[in-house]
Design goal:
The protein is α+β, with helices and mostly antiparallel strands. The chain is 57% helix and 17% strand. Helix 1 runs antiparallel to helix 2.
Length: 99
């Protein structure tokens, strides 16, 4: 009987993870960092990048630093949203890879 209960709980968790995955994909994060705009979803999948024309006149190294900073900020925001969603799913239980 215990095995049946564990299997049922595993299926329930799988369903919850699938639902969380859909929510994370739908949650759009927008970041603007020194003129560079990035859109990503909360699964840390980047959707768009916008670099203003005037910035393209700058030195290559400066542009690269700004782009990296914008991606870093977007990634951090996505991680926070993902952690909050995982926290609500697990009831605060810390599960490696989800927190």
């Amino acid at each position: 009987m215990e095995l049946f209960k564990m299997a049922k709980e595993a299926l329930s968790m799988r369903s919850k993870l699938s639902e969380m995955d859909k929510k994370l994909k739908a949650k759009i994060i927008e970041v603007e960092n020194k003129g560079i705009k990035i859109q990503a979803n909360a699964k840390n999948e980047f959707l768009s990048l916008n670099i203003p024309e005037d910035l393209l006149q700058e030195k290559k190294e400066k542009i690269e630093k700004r782009i990296l900073a914008a991606f870093q900020e977007a990634g951090e925001k996505a991680q926070k949203v993902m952690a909050e969603e995982a926290k609500s799913l697990t009831g605060g239980l810390k599960i490696p890879g989800l927190n």
